[in-house]
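re: the backbone from monday

yeah here it is again, tokenized this time
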């Protein structure tokens, strides 16, 4: 008898149960969904016959490799005529449209979340740049004060402090130029192409619908 949670395990008990359920669903029997197989059919393993309750089979035929869902289990098992056969393209387009309608709020939420994330990243980078600029400006001012405070007779120290001051000024100027280039390349406000890319990321309904309803011979 298997006793749950008795010893430490590689995976949780819930994960084990989910794996066993998936293995059971993948069995090639009439009562299970069946494992995914070749072909672009969307609803294979999910449809059942309204007459006999058996699962419909996906079949492809003709030069265009058209998809049809058929109830042929009785024919396969007992040699009697099947219950029904229907075109799969229309049915899958209908189901895909319903799924996309349900996913529409999530699509909008995804777009908003992506835009908020980009804005937060831009603001964080902007804060980082301001801190670097403030630090460079402070170092330049401190170097200037040190140079001005040195005794004029102490020429050796004065030359060294003047060199430090010039280096601090050059570093501050270089940082300001890099920041200006950063602002040109990555402005704080999102550009029109970036907004369009976010909308394309969130509004994936059309591309997914096209992929689902693409004729099987085109894949």
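seq for it, each position gets an aa:
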């Amino acid at each position: 008898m298997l006793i749950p949670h008795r010893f430490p395990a590689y995976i949780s008990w819930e994960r084990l149960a989910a794996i066993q359920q998936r293995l059971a669903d993948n069995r090639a029997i009439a009562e299970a969904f069946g494992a995914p197989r070749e072909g672009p059919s969307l609803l294979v393993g999910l449809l059942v016959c309204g007459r006999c309750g058996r699962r419909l089979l996906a079949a492809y035929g003709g030069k265009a490799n058209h998809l049809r869902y058929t109830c042929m289990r009785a024919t396969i098992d007992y040699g009697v005529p099947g219950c029904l056969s229907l075109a799969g393209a229309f049915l899958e387009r209908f189901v895909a449209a319903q799924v996309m309608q349900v996913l529409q709020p999530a699509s909008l939420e995804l777009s908003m979340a992506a835009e908020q994330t980009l804005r937060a990243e831009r603001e964080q980078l902007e804060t980082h740049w301001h801190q670097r600029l403030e630090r460079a400006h402070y170092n330049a001012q401190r170097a200037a004060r040190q140079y001005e405070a040195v005794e004029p007779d102490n020429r050796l120290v004065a030359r060294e402090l003047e060199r430090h001051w010039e280096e601090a000024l050059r570093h501050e100027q270089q940082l300001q130029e890099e920041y200006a280039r950063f602002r040109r390349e990555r402005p704080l406000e999102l550009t029109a192409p970036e907004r369009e890319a976010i909308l394309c990321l969130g509004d994936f309904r059309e591309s997914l619908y096209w992929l689902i309803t693409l004729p099987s011979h085109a894949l």
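Residues 204-219 have pLDDT under 50 and may be disordered. The longest strand covers residues 57-61.
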